[in-house]
Design a protein that fits this description.
globular, EmrB-like, MFS_trans_sf, 16 helices, membrane
Length: 484
């Protein structure tokens, strides 16, 4: 049984290690959107290249995050976590020195692999190291500090873009890694799961990531309507079908199909797909709208997004407690509707938009909606499966959210009629943004209807989330599987 106490010197070092590791991923997931306009101008990149700058990272992260957690259980959580930190930092360095869009996109894909190794590893280290009496408090501190990183990330990113340059958005990860790795090797105990067995589902992970990559390419390049796009789309569907077949027939699948036998689990993941698709499209386009159309500087655009994450940090735990009393159906129905209203309010954000009267009201409503739904969503996922599969269920839900976000970033500009050079023209981008926000709102309304029709109150004695404070807008919080 793990026996490190949080108040001990070693406990504080372990917490620092996990916070530093998760902060690298958390910062990167929030600051890059703010840097996109400057990246596009400096590298002479079109809109498709900017979409890939976001999505190359999300493809590998979403496709491999379940495998990353399994590797830590088998080979040692500290070992895989440190490997992830080093990999992520090396890929960040490559991003920072990239001479053009192609190298940057490839480096972002490599970053996602590192993120898939260290993201589940940071929470697993807490689960495996701390005494059970201190574990919940350690998870709370870890998630709280991570949420602070998510909140200040866009502002830091904007400041770096306007000052030293966008490359420092990525280079910042290198000193964080140089601090994190020695501390991990010196102070964090190694742990593994003696019950981990069977072969790794590498084929399933590769097919899943390949399907996401091919379908994303087809959506981003669909404006051209070429035969290559059609072939890529067909190949993506074929890879997705092959992924499902492999998972159904493997002895130890990465994504066990029987977990979807729970109607509640399936319903909550359908809601997740809707809401995080809308969130992914919203935050991608809003960071551009504020700079390209409203004329905000990168620091101002980054700071403008702070209220949403701040509200989540302040009230997510209370929202979870309220949902425990009311059941998840009401918050999962009302939350998406609030977010849909926020996206319609964003239609007021145009040229020379005033922050207090045009931008802030929409972001406050958006934050209220996310506060309402994120904690109950996580609780519903955990409550819908056996306690022993909590980590798996949370990982699937987290991966589904990230996959939904990357598909939205690929598809939404196409649906809104954005041309390759749209972000260089304020008028063209503003018009397309005005078409995109109602699409996002419609997807959220669909999520609300699904929640109202399908989500039910869980039975007594079900697993409750350990991570009650949350600030990430990219995906729901991960939960550990409870194995020490």
């Amino acid at each position: 049984m793990p026996d490190v106490r949080l108040a001990s010197s070693q406990g504080k070092w372990i917490l620092l290690t996990t916070v530093l590791g998760s902060a690298m991923v958390m910062l990167d997931s929030t600051v890059v959107n703010v840097a996109l306009p400057r990246i596009g101008r400096d590298l002479d990149a079109d809109l498709a290249a900017l979409q890939w700058t976001v999505n190359a990272y999300m493809v590998t992260l979403a496709g491999l995050i379940l495998l990353g957690g399994s590797l830590g259980d088998r080979y040692g959580r500290r070992k895989v976590f440190v490997l992830g930190v080093v990999w992520f930092a090396a890929a960040s360095l490559l991003c920072g020195v990239a001479p053009g869009p192609t190298v940057l996109i490839a480096a972002r894909a490599l970053q996602g692999i590192g993120g898939a190794l260290l993201t589940p590893g940071s929470l697993a280290l807490i689960q495996a190291s701390f005494h059970p009496d201190d574990r919940s408090r350690a998870v709370g501190l870890w998630s709280g500090f991570g949420g602070i990183g998510a909140a200040v990330g866009p502002f830091i990113g904007g400041w770096l873009v306007a000052g030293p340059g966008w490359r420092w958005v990525f280079l910042l990860n290198v000193p964080l890694a140089l601090l994190c790795v020695p501390v991990a090797l010196r102070h964090v105990p190694e742990s593994a799961d003696a019950r981990a067995h069977g072969r790794f589902d590498v084929l399933g992970a590769v097919l899943g990531a390949l399907a996401l990559a091919l379908l994303t390419y087809a959506l981003i390049e669909a404006r051209g309507g070429s035969a290559v796009v059609a072939v890529t789309a067909v190949a993506g569907v074929a890879a997705a079908v092959a992924f499902v077949r492999v998972e159904r027939h493997r002895a130890d699948p990465m994504l066990p199909p029987d977990v979807f036998a729970s109607r509640q689990f399936t319903a909550v993941n359908l809601v997740t797909l809707c809401v995080y698709a809308a969130f992914g499209g919203f935050f991608f386009l809003t960071a551009l709208q504020l700079q390209v159309v409203a004329g905000y500087s990168p620091p101002a655009a980054g700071a403008a997004l702070l209220p949403t994450t701040a509200l989540m940090l302040l009230f997510s735990a209370r929202s979870g407690a309220l949902a425990d009393r009311t059941g998840p159906r009401l918050p999962l129905t009302a939350g998406p509707l609030l977010c849909a209203a926020a996206m319609l309010l964003m239609l007021r954000v145009g040229a020379d938009a005033d922050y207090l009267t045009d931008v802030l009201p929409a972001l406050l409503v958006m934050g209220a909606g996310m506060v309402t739904l994120v904690a109950p969503l996580t609780a519903s996922v955990l409550a819908s499966v056996d306690a022993g599969r909590a980590g798996l269920a949370s990982g699937i839900n987290n991966a589904a959210a990230r996959a939904a976000g990357l598909v939205a970033v690929a598809a939404l500009p196409l649906l809104a009629g954005m041309g390759p050079e749209a972000y260089r023209s304020p008028a063209a981008f503003d018009a397309a943004f005005g078409r995109a926000m109602p699409v996002c709102a419609g997807v959220l309304v669909l999520g609300s209807l699904l929640a109202f029709a399908l989500v039910r109150r869980p039975g007594p004695g079900c697993r409750r989330p350990e991570c009650r404070t949350h600030g990430s807008v990219a995906a729901p919080p991960l939960e550990a599987g409870g194995r020490g």
